[in-house]
Amino acid sequence: MITKWSFFGKSLEIKKDATLDVDVLFCGDFARYLPHIILGMNLFGKRGLYTQRYHGLNRFEVESITCCFSHKKIYDGETIFLKNLKTVDIEDITYPTPEQITIGFRTPFTGREFPPDFNTLLTLIRNRVIRFVNEYGDKQKIPPVTASGTTQKYTEHYHKLERRSSRSRKKVFHSYTGVVTYDIEELDDTGAWMLQLGFIVGCGPDCSFGCGFLQKM
Question: In terms of residue numbers, what domain contains 96?
Answer without folding.
Answer: 90-216
